[in-house]
Amino acid sequence: MYSSKISGLGMYVPENVVTNDDLSKVMDTNDEWIQERTGIKERRHIKKGDGNSTAVMGVKAAKVALERSGIHKDNIDLIVFATLSPDYYFPGCGVQVQELLEMPNVPAIDVRNQCSGFVYALSIADQYIKTGMYTNVLVVGSENHSGGLDMTTRGRSVSVIFGDGAGAAIVSRSNDDSAILSTHMHSEGKHAKELALIGPSTGHWVPEIIAESDTATDDHITYYPYMNGQFVFKNAVTRFAEVIMEGLKANSMTPDDIDMLIPHQANLRIAQFIQKKFKLSNDRVFNNIQKYGNTTAASIPIALTEAWEQGKIQKGDKVVLAAFGSGFTWASAVINW
Question: What is the pTM assigned to this prediction?
C-alpha cells in the first residue's frame, strides 16, 4: 500500500475586508460583542463585480498549490471539491474547476460536509492514493458565505461569523517519511437541524421560501442559515477532543507529540478550549479566525497554508487537523509533515 503527502498548499481570499465596525452600520451589533463571543475582528466578502465565486476562488487557490508542488496540472488524476456554497445547486464546483483549469476529462468529486468538508476530502484523496489508483489529487475547500447571509439584526448571530475564501492542497504519492498517517470521520444526523439551511431545497423550494423568508417556522425553514449556537458549541468541544484523541491513539501518540494543531476556524473560544484541554502552548496551535471569520470548508486549508507560509510547520512535524460542524459531522487527520 502506498502513502500520501501534501506536496503543495495555496489559498485565496477576496480583497474586500469587512470589519466588525462595518457590520455595526447594517445591524445592531458592535466590535466588542462580536470579539467577545467569537474572537473575530474582520472577515473577507466577495464584492459585486470582483469576478469571484466559489469555484473561481477555488481555482485561484489551486493554481498557487500547483505551482508550489511543482506538479503540472496535466498530472492531476482527480479533483475533490468541498463546499456548502456551490455556484449552482447542481452540478457541483468540481467540474467548474476542471473546466477553468483546462484539465480534460479529469474526474471530479464534490463533498458536502460543511465545516468538516476539507478533512473528509483529504481522507478521500488519501485513500485513492493509498490504493494505488491515483498519484496526484487536487483537494479544494472554498466558500462564498456572503451571498447567502441575512445581513440584518435578525441574522446577526450567524452572519457576523462567516467569511469568504478558498484553500487548496495537492495530495501526492509519498516517496519518503512525509505522510498522512491516518484520518478519522464521524457523523450524527439527529442534530442536523441545529446548524442548517433547510431551504431552498427540493422539499421547500424558492417561491415558498421567498413568501416566508421574514419568519422561520418551528422547523427553522428559512431562506437563511440557522444555528443553535450554544448547542453547537457544547457538541463541538466534545467531538473535537474525541476525534483528536482518536487520531493520536491510532498512531500511538499523545498530545505532547503534537507540533501543530490546525483546528477548524469556527469560533476562537472553541479552539482556546481545546488548546487548554490538551495543554498546548500558543506556538502549537494556529488560529486565523480573527482575520477571516469562519470560512467553513476553506478554513483548515487557509489556516494550514498560512501556518506553513509563516514557517510554523517544518518537515518532520506532527500536524493534526480537526473539524466539527453541520451534520453534525466531525473529523481529524494526523500528518507527518
Answer: 0.94
